[in-house]
Amino acid sequence: DVEITFQSREDLDLRVWDLASHSWVSAAQVPNLFYSGDDSSPPFFEEVLRIEGELHTDLVVLAQNNGNTRADALITYSWGEDKSCIDGRDAAPRGCVVAQQGAAAKALDDLSGWLVGAFDSAAEVYRAFGANRSSGPDSRARGLGPLDWHCLWNAWPTHDGSRTSWEETFFLVDVNQDRLIDEAELGHTYLTSEVSDVLVSLFD
Known about the structure:
By secondary structure, the protein is of the alpha+beta class. It is built from seven helices and eight strands; from the N terminus they run E-E-E-E-E-E-E-E-H-H-H-H-H-H-H.
């Protein structure tokens, strides 16, 4: 199950494109697709798209700007459990790739080394990237959301050289899987390289 919400100060419409038939589709054409329609609650326009169960075609969700000026939108999304992952199958679900946890752990070790050199403490890192506030109005009180972590990842000068993605590293750092990285979780990452150095020195 997937739910996507668009919220903007401008009049935006959600549009759904079927890649197989090369045509726009409506909720009436797809039994498990539900669409809220235009919900105008000043000062925002909000539209919600919900998909229940499995789709048998690939869909693309787009936002259409009906105004004459540039429009910024806040997009939030959530999803339910993927049964193919729960069943323990080796193959990744369609549209996904198998996570490379070893590569992600190595990237976090390297990222930690940069963080220690660039920031005096984990708290300083938290303040710097928590200020983006790109992941929701209440994330400041609870932790760094995915987009905040993405900003941190992009700030790391050598992130392009890692063999993993910011999404995979976010998953490892977010130990309790609440989709927010709190100060304790960020602190563990900050110290990762120093712990690795100690271990290397012990067994060298």
